[in-house]
Amino acid sequence: xxxxxxxxxxxxxxxxxxxxxxxxxxxxxxxxxxxxxxxxxxxxxxxxxxxxxxxxxxxxxxxxxxxxxxxxxxxxxxxxxxxxxxxxxxxxxxxxxxxxxxxxxxxxxxxxxxxxxxxxxxxxxxxxxxxxxxxxxxxxxxxxxxxxxxxxxxxxxxxxxxxxxxxxxxxxxxxxxxxxxxxxxxxxxxxxxxxxxxxxxxxxxxxxxxxxxxxxxxxxxxxxxxxxxxxxxxxxxxxxxxxxxxxxxxxxxxxxxxxxxxxxxxxxxxxxxxxxxxxxxxxxxxxxxxxxxxxxxxxxxxxxxxxxxxxxxxxxxxxxxxxxxxxxxxxxxxxxxxxxxxxxxxxxxxxxxxxxxxxxxxxxxxxxxxxxxxxxxxxxxxxxx
Length: 385
Ligand code: FAD
Known about the structure:
This protein is an alpha/beta fold. It contains 8 helices and 25 strands. Helix 1 (11-22) packs parallel to helix 6 (276-290). Residues 7-13, 32-35, 42-43, 45-46, 75-76, 99-102, 116-117, 143, 225, 228, 257-258, 274-277, 279, 303-305 line the site of flavin-adenine dinucleotide (FAD).
């Protein structure tokens, strides 16, 4: 292998380059990324950057030291075997890393709507979050909750409109999501409510009601950024389909991060996880696969969110669970624990209980059975259950 092309200059792309060099790859590497910025981290965008505590979140990336031909502002348009077509001409490759991430879904309508995916999005939105501004946030998922947190903190009048029966319902289920309801104190939270369109001056709801707003922020999810691969001879299904080695169906091609739908040996299911830890961890396996090794990507998925003064952390795959138990009451620090039919841990969501998260992750990796009667006592360490 002489030349690796990496498409996408987010965390997964950058980590792939580091892993290739750490793995001994000495050939040429070209990195193309649509954004004009140098690589940066996204989690701080909806936290420190939106709150004004920081203006950027650039990652350490020394293109010269890594001997990378970095081409910011260049997009990949199409792929055929051995060649990536970009907005600035063709690039021949013999190894290709697809790391194009995901892009926000928007709501119909001609009115101005903000999304929060890029540094530019975050800086634009921050400038609009001023005391007294009427802010409508569409979606009470991870991004919606973090934007609502920031908007309320700066003194905006915040309305959150959520189609589901509770905040975070899509991510952790309505029952667990309902435990976060009291956090929305001072926010006009409208559940089971659908926005039909964003118009000048506000949003129109299904049913016709108009909710006025100076600022509309849409946080209803993302889709994998794989449109540029539409005409390519590569399997796509909810992202780039890969095996457990992160190899795509086209020889010499791997996919990592938000755009990759990999086969999980652990869960015997195809997963696409839109979280930072996957973008951080998967590249090592993808790089090894490109270098001809048989590495397997098989993590217990993990993410965190900071909202309304709480630290939420989640690990596991709740779809593998049979039942749900709680440690602690909603008014305090608590964890939701999902058990399989065999009483092993399928997933855990912790709210201000980081120790449960650390121990839960280890228990999932070990696959040990737990005693449900002990588990519901928040004073007993999870590892002693
Ligand atoms: P991305 O970071 O999306 O990078 C992909 C890059 O590819 C982009 O720069 C894009 O412009 C570029 N690209 C796309 N198409 C093309 C093309 N055709 N040609 C060239 N370049 C292209 N996760 C957590 O676990 N915890 C959090 O608290 C958390 N907070 C978040 C807050 C925000 C506001 C956002 C947006 C995400 C957050 N995440 C969080 C998710 C996490 O940031 C992502 O999972 C991670 O950024 C994925 O990295 P990636 O490299 O796969 O994709």
